[in-house]
């Protein structure tokens, strides 16, 4: 039943994808009428790049590794190009229709802004330039994650005057598009924070990552410095690989991957890592949070790692002090962030329910198009203070 639903959903996505690209082809063909060579170049551009990403991603990994990387990367950029070109063309068409409905002279049927007129060709070229500018800015934005810091006072007390410094990273999607060089820079930024604990909230590796990339990434991950260690959970994309302990095995336990597991750290602090919700599609069970908390001492801080920020009330009811999640990318592409906000109780940033604090990260990477226009990628430093410790909860930004 689930497989049938997935096939139906995938079919719907592919139909919409094809219709959007047909629309772009038709509009470009009309705009460049009379310029036959430009029409042919535009036609080949749209067809080649629209097919590159989906076809290569659907190939088995052994076949995918043989494909030139440039086609996959170009296809990934095209997804962003397609999205914004479609959006801008629709807005322009709506503007022309509105102008015609209001009987404004510049938008009359005989106007140069008519699809067959020279004005439309000029406007189409302007829209192409705007589209390229948007994806260029979005790509540059994705390369420079900012350091964001929060201070949180818990309603609990523990020994020690210093706060517990937790670095949070998520959603790098290391693989065919996001490369190892990005991971090296992120590790350097994390180490600059001098954290006590590093939490990886899922999807650090993409499902399309190769074995050689995993092995190289493991050598970079072990350069992370944290007094209490590095703890990770899987995201939905990592779950699809069906190798839940892969990163822990590659780093020989240096990075602990928790799959519905609990670990007690000095301080003392308890960290719970939940199996991702995507595991249900693979027939894998996900334990209830209440079951994971059996035997855990609630006198001390309890930190929950759960990739997808869904049903936040569960952590509050269970008495969790801090939940860290990722997954949302804050929508990644503006204006999809508006829809993203409607899908989640909190899609990005700090949140609170009762005595439970939450942080949902927009991630340090991208999935699909390597651009981020809805937010700026981030690495987060959370400082946990005890109830009788110094410092109030506040938010600050470090660029």
Please give a handful of descriptors for the protein shown.
399 residues, alpha/beta, Purple Acid Phosphatase, chain A, domain 2, seven-stranded mixed beta sheet, six-stranded mixed beta sheet, 12 helices, 17% strand, disordered C terminus
Task: Please provide a written account of the structure.
The structure is a single chain. The protein has 399 residues and is of the alpha/beta class. It folds into 2 domains: 2-140, no CATH class; 146-398, Metallo-dependent phosphatases (Purple Acid Phosphatase, chain A, domain 2), CATH 3.60.21.10. It is 42% helix and 17% strand. It contains 12 helices and 13 strands. It has helices at 2-31, 36-58, 61-64, 69-101, 118-142, 180-192, 211-221, 236-239, 246-250, 289-292, 313-318, 336-343; strands at residues 146-153, 164-169, 197-200, 229-232, 255-257, 261-265, 269-273, 302-305, 322-325, 349-353, 356-360, 378-385, 394-398. A 7-stranded mixed beta sheet has the order 5-4-3-2-12-1-13. A 6-stranded mixed beta sheet has the order 6-7-8-9-11-10. Helix 11 links the parallel strand 8 (302-305) and strand 9 (322-325). Helix 1 (2-31) runs antiparallel to helix 2 (36-58) and helix 4 (69-101) crosses helix 5 (118-142). It is elongated, with a radius of gyration of 24 Å. The two termini are 48 Å apart. Residues 390-399 have low confidence and may be disordered.
């Amino acid at each position: 039943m689930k497989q049938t639903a997935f096939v139906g959903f995938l079919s719907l996505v592919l139909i919409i994808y094809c219709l959007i690209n047909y629309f772009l082809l038709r509009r470009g063909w009309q705009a460049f009428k009379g310029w036959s060579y430009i029409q042919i170049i535009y036609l080949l551009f749209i067809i080649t790049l629209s097919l590159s990403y989906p076809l290569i991603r659907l190939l088995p990994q052994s076949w995918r590794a043989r494909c030139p990387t440039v086609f996959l990367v170009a296809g990934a950029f095209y997804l962003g190009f397609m999205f914004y070109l479609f959006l801008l063309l629709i807005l322009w068409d709506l503007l022309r229709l509105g102008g015609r409905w209001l009987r404004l002279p510049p938008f009359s049927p005989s106007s140069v802004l008519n699809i067959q007129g020279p004005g439309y060709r000029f406007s189409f070229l302007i829209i192409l330039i705007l589209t390229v500018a948007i994806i260029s800015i979005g790509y540059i934005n994705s390369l420079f994650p900012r350091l964001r810091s929060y201070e949180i006072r818990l309603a609990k007390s523990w020994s020690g005057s210093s706060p517990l410094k937790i670095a949070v990273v998520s959603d790098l999607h290391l693989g065919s598009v996001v490369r190892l060089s990005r991971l090296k820079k992120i590790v350097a930024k994390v180490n600059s924070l001098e954290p006590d604990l590093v939490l990886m909230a899922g999807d650090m590796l993409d499902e399309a990552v190769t074995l050689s990339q995993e092995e190289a990434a493991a050598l970079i991950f072990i350069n992370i410095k944290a007094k209490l260690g590095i703890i990770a959970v899987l995201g939905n994309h990592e779950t699809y690989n069906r190798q839940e302990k892969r990163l822990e095995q590659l780093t020989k336990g240096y990075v602990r991957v928790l799959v519905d597991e609990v670990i007690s750290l000095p301080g003392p602090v308890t960290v719970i890592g939940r199996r991702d919700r995507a595991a249900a599609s693979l027939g894998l069970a996900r334990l209830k949070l209440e079951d994971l908390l059996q035997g855990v001492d609630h006198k001390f801080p309890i930190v929950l790692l759960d990739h997808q920020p869904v049903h936040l009330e569960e952590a509050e009811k269970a008495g969790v002090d801090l939940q860290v999640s990722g997954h949302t990318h804050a929508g990644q592409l503006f204006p999809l962030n508006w829809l993203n906000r409607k899908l989640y109780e909190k899609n990005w940033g700090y949140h609170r329910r009762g005595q439970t604090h939450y942080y949902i990260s927009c991630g340090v990477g991208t999935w699909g198009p390597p651009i981020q226009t809805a937010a700026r990628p981030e690495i987060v430093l959370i400082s946990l203070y005890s109830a009788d410790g110094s410092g109030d909860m506040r938010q600050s930004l470090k660029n």
